[in-house]
Write a structure and sequence with these properties.
It contains 3 helices and 18 strands. The longest helix has 10 residues. It is mainly beta. The protein has 2 domains: 142 residues, Mannose-Binding Protein A, subunit A (Mannose-Binding Protein A, Chain A); 50 residues, no CATH class. A hairpin with a 2-residue loop joins strand 15 and strand 16.
Length: 256
Amino acid sequence: HGKENVDSRHNRGRGGETTRFHTVNVAQPVRFSRKCPTGWHHYEGTASCYRVYLNGENYWDAVQTCQRVNGSLATFTADQELRFILAQEWDLEEKTFVRKDQRRFWVGYQYVITNRNHSLEGHWEVAYKGSSEVFLPPDPIFGTAMSENENVLCAQLQCFHFPTLRHHGLHSWYAENCYEKSSFLCKRSQTCVDIKDNVVDEGYYFTPKGNDPCLSCTCHNGEPEMCVAALCERPQGCQQYRKDPKECCKFTCLDP
């Protein structure tokens, strides 16, 4: 029986005796609301987190910014992943470097030019050989800031802010001078995030995001596993109270 006697019901048993039923603490299905830090978008299909950085940086600086947050410039494994990216409404508050209805982001591909004779010929490559299996973009639109000497151009994915265009998946691929400044899209593996939005390393105990601050779980492959819940005793001398959503067994008494 739980120590918290929330509800007592009286029923007549056989022989007229009164049978009392006490509600007990029952384990509830656990739902974790986020597997990414604040500001990142989670996609179940790749168990990855995505974030657009709207401050304009050239391609090489964007690469370093993504690496500092344990990620890389995004590459895509399938059409479904790309459609997920195109459907998101990325924040627009910060300064942007293109028209607000059209957003361009550096992503993790480079276009290698092999022939400049009559028209530019070349092929896409994944910028970093360590990337997992990915699909390569179609032929690009060439940017306006191209240099005659550059043999490598960098990929920008253009998507649209208008909801109807977003949800139809309209987009374009640009091969642009790598030293142009642009917003960029980082991708990282999903991770364990605790209730206070801290990232948790593999194998450590933590309280996951959700609505139970009394859970303690182990972080395994970015998922909370082997969770144990603490049960709290009712606060003494208090009839009405509110549980703290972030601290286990901490209450605010609401009595007059």
